[in-house]
Amino acid sequence: MARAGMLGPIVALAALAATCMRAQAQEINDYPTSARAEYVFGCMKSNGESRQSIEQCSCSIDVVASIIPYDRYVTAETVLSMSQVRGNLGGQFRSSEQAANALNDLRRAQAEAEVRCF
């Protein structure tokens, strides 16, 4: 009978732990599949189109996603793209402190991914 009385709190604790784990997984998985696929395809172009590169590049985007939130990733990708535009518009992206910070965050995350995955 004493064991049956303890079962309720244990079940509640297990449910709470499962909810926390799901919330954590959603935070880590906030990158859309299309963004992950695009990253992996680009990574594979740079690292060879082999089975090993699929594994390494998939690992890499998982690490990046665990370090920086998706909105920060989009900002950094936009900075990368727009900084290649010639003229005044591209110059604004190349010289902005906010843009540089977003880009530095992405580069640090990619460096960590390089260490962990390659």
Tell me about the biggest sheet? none
Distance between the termini: 55 Å
How many structural domains?
2
Overall body shape:
globular
The whole-number mean of residue pLDDT values reads 82
Indicate the low-confidence ranges by residue numbers.
10-15, 20-26
H-E string: HHHHHH
Total number of strands: 0
Helix content: over 70%
- Rg result: 20 Å
Name the beta content range.
under 5%
Q: From the helix content, strand content and strand pairing, which structural class follows?
A: mainly alpha
Total of helices: 6
Structure characterization notes:
Keywords: Signal. This protein has 118 residues and is mainly α. It has 2 domains: 30 residues; 87 residues, no CATH class. The chain is 86% helix and 0% strand. The protein contains 6 helices and no strands. The radius of gyration is 20 Å and the shape is globular. It starts with a helix and ends with a helix. About 11% of the residues have low confidence.
List the keywords:
118 residues, mainly alpha, 2 domains, 6 helices, 86% helix, globular
Question: Quick summary of this structure?
Answer:
With 118 residues, this protein is mostly helical. The protein is 86% helix and 0% strand. The model is unreliable at 10-15 and 20-26 (pLDDT under 50).
Protein topology:
Layout: H1 2-28, H2 33-47, H3 51-67, H4 70-82, H5 88-95, H6 97-117
Helix pairs in contact: 2-3, 3-6, 4-6
